From TrEMBL:
Superkingdom as given in the UniProt entry: Bacteria
Keyword set includes Hydrolase: yes
Protein name (Swiss-Prot/TrEMBL): Sortase
Keywords, in A-Z order: Hydrolase
InterPro entries hit by this protein: Sortase (IPR005754), Sortase_dom-sf (IPR023365)
Organism: Enterococcus alcedinis
GO molecular function: hydrolase activity
């Protein structure tokens, strides 16, 4: 009798044990299934998300106002060049000329003077021009036969004279050979000039050109 009771108890315990095990197993299977379904619905958080930033709309560039082409200004009329008058040029230097008719000495400073004659370049006469050395006429010593001397008279007329003779005379217009050169210097035939400057206290350099 006791054995039967024990077998019944053991049977009941085993049955309950099996029932509990089966119920626990069912719960685990259901949790695993639900977890698997949940994993399929979740997003992949490890993916690098591309962040698209909205580009700022470029501000329209201000329109550059096109300047109307300025009308060309009428060309100003060129001022007439001042007419040169009363000057002599030789040895690369231009010297103003002044009236020194019959003066005791050549004009001071960078000037030369008409000592005899009216200075006109077309009167077919001789004009004698004097200047200091050292001074305005120092360049006379560079002149030689064939050199050009340019003269602009009081009317603004220009003439180029060519040197044809060079003389050395004393204050009395006598050469070292004793010859009187007055007429040779002051009465040249046709349109001519004669230039004079001192060599020293006694002798003078004379250049004749026409």
């Amino acid at each position: 009798m006791k054995k039967k009771v024990r077998l019944l108890v053991v049977s009941i315990v085993l049955g309950l044990s099996l029932l509990f095990v089966s119920s626990v197993s069912g719960v685990n299977d259901e949790m695993i299934f639900e977890h698997a379904v949940a994993q399929k619905t979740l997003p992949e958080t490890k993916s690098k998300l591309k962040i698209v930033l909205k580009k700022k709309a470029a501000k329209p560039k201000p329109k550059v106002a096109v300047k109307a082409k300025a009308k060309p200004k009428p060309k100003a009329k060129a001022k007439p060049k001042a007419v040169k008058k009363n000057e002599i040029t030789f040895s690369g230097k231009t010297i103003p000329l002044v009236n020194s008719q019959g003066a005791a000495a050549a004009p001071k400073g960078n000037k030369a003077g008409y000592w005899r004659g009216n200075g006109k370049v077309n009167d077919k006469k001789t004009t004698h021009i004097i200047g200091h050395n050292p001074g305005s006429f120092a360049g006379m010593f560079k002149l030689k036969k064939g050199s050009i001397i340019k003269v602009v008279d009081s009317d603004g007329k220009t003439r180029n004279y060519k040197v044809y003779s060079i003389l050395t005379v004393n204050d009395n217009v006598y050469g070292k050979n004793g010859k009187d050169y007055w007429s040779t210097i002051f009465n040249q035939k046709g349109e001519a000039i004669s230039l004079q400057t001192c060599i020293n206290d006694y002798w003078n350099l004379i250049v004749l050109a026409k």
